[in-house]
Specification:
- It contains 18 helices and 12 strands.
- Helix 1 packs across helix 5, helix 2 packs parallel to helix 4 and helix 17 packs across helix 18.
- The radius of gyration is 32 Å and the shape is elongated.
């Protein structure tokens, strides 16, 4: 938790410093602190500081210079900020197994010498119509709900302002799905005080590893009966906080994006799902819509979690079938209350099911809102009702799902295990046969798949509160 607080306060401080730098430049109060020394080892050091971040994202980062040394005037803090912003962006918008190249050289233009720095990636690129806006403040190319990268739209605006403060220029070439190339040209001067070595300013953010250790699911082994909550959230810090809030009373699983979340939900059949809206691969609306249309997961309550608090955004979430809506930042107490209420509603539905819904399902007198999945289960049991060896494994095979998926779905919708549910359907059929035919108890027991009439009589009495003989016509 302390690491989480420290990391996020660092991010906030870095953002505030960038905004203050923009304000200083705009007001004309920022002056470059120039020192004269070799810029090449400095640029290599700053660029290679991103190696661990690139490696963590499975991206290849290459830094090479066509010149061994170049003595010139530069402001270490401001140049670090420029390189950091460009490399952070390149990593952010480059796919796994992608490549980033930092190319350093010297060039001549209009008889003046310039330091040339190119940052090239083979990432997602930028559409032609958006290129003219990328240096504008707060502009973000990805405004969809399928957000793949986080950002504020300040970094490139500040980069351009700083380069211009250095009397330099910055240009960009980009092609969607091919990559981008940012080119900096900074004039070479030798007027400042000579310095042997340049110190890296602590105020400038050089990235460290972003790996976040999520709290272990300590309850998953000690108490498997606790309700399971799947958290679908691409921000690991938010996922960390959610798991911390829930770990006392719930088991938790975490999916990093919408597509993984759907797969996990279909496999695990949780009791509740908490899903962010803006995520990569599939957004929260798509997650909600997909899971509400799937027979295996249509019963699961889904809580939508988002920073968008406008009425239209809340309405959109609910229109996709969400059961509740929470805006960030949320209170822990509100989150827990929402989950408790949703689970309570499920329990009430289960109690109503206990009071005769199996009999209704058996006769197919069900409303459209009832689960089609249960109808499918019952039809398969009825088709195999005489088979004494027809159990959970055989039923799951016929439904083309795993035995654990079937168990969790039935437990969630009927509060019965698969074996008990199969037995209940057989007993309902047995009761019906006793009422409308002249068959003996033994004949009925064999007909509904029991190979021991006395066991049939015992479980029949347990199910209906009366002996089979009371139902004989």
């Amino acid at each position: 938790s302390l690491e989480l607080i420290n990391r996020n306060s660092d991010n906030l401080l870095h953002l505030i410093n960038e905004m203050l730098d923009l304000a200083k430049i705009e007001s004309g109060n920022m002056e470059l602190q120039l020192e004269q020394t070799d810029v090449i080892p400095f640029l290599k050091y700053v660029s290679e500081s991103f190696s661990s971040l690139a490696e963590e994202n499975q991206i290849s980062l290459t830094v090479y210079s066509e010149i061994d040394n170049l003595i010139m005037d530069f402001d270490a803090k401001r140049l670090t900020s420029v390189i950091s912003n460009l490399l952070s962006n390149a990593i952010k918008f480059t796919h796994k197994y992608g490549k980033i190249i930092v190319h350093i050289n010297k060039t001549v233009k209009n008889k003046n010498q310039y330091l040339l720095i190119k940052v090239k990636d083979n990432g997602i690129g930028i559409a032609k119509e958006k290129l003219s806006n990328i240096f504008n403040r707060f502009y973000q190319t990805d405004t969809s709900t399928i957000r793949k990268r986080q950002g504020t739209g300040i970094g490139l605006a500040l980069t351009k302002e700083l380069v211009e403060l250095m009397n330099g220029t910055i240009t960009v070439k980009s092609t969607p799905n091919i990559g981008s190339e940012f080119s900096l040209m900074i004039p070479i001067t030798n007027k400042a005080k000579t310095s042997r070595a340049i110190k890296i300013d602590n105020d400038v953010s050089i990235p460290r590893s972003n790996k976040i250790s999520l709290p272990a699911d300590t309850n998953s082994e000690t108490n498997p009966e606790l309700p399971l909550v799947i958290i679908i959230e691409d921000n690991k810090d938010v996922a960390f906080y959610l798991k911390s809030c829930l770990k006392e009373n719930y088991r938790t699983e975490h999916a990093l994006n919408g597509e993984l979340g759907i797969k996990m939900a279909l496999e695990k059949i949780p009791d509740v799902i908490i899903s962010d809206v803006m995520m990569p691969e599939k957004n929260g609306f798509e997650v909600c819509e997909t899971l509400k249309m799937e027979e295996l997961t249509d019963h699961i309550p889904i809580i939508m979690l988002t920073a968008k608090a406008a009425f239209k955004d809340r309405l959109a979430g609910l229109s996709y079938g969400a059961d509740a809506y929470l805006t960030k930042p949320f209170e822990k107490a509100e989150l827990l209350t929402r989950i408790e209420q949703l689970i309570l509603v499920r329990k009430k539905i289960l109690s109503k099911f206990e009071k005769g819904n199996i009999e209704q399902l058996l006769h197919k007198n069900v409303k459209k809102s009832e689960s089609k999945f249960l109808q499918k289960v019952i039809t398969n049991i009825q088709d195999n009702i005489t088979k004494t060896d027809f159990g959970p494994i055989q039923l799951a095979d016929q439904l083309f799902i795993s035995e654990s998926q079937l168990y969790r779905k039935l437990k969630a919708t009927t509060d019965k295990s698969t074996a008990v549910f199969i037995r209940s359907i057989k007993l309902q059929k047995g009761k019906e046969l006793l009422q409308i035919t002249n068959k003996t108890i033994s004949e009925v027991a064999y007909e509904v798949g029991f190979n021991d009439p006395s066991y049939f009589s015992r479980v029949f009495k347990k199910e209906f509160g009366q002996a089979p003989s009371n139902f004989i016509n």
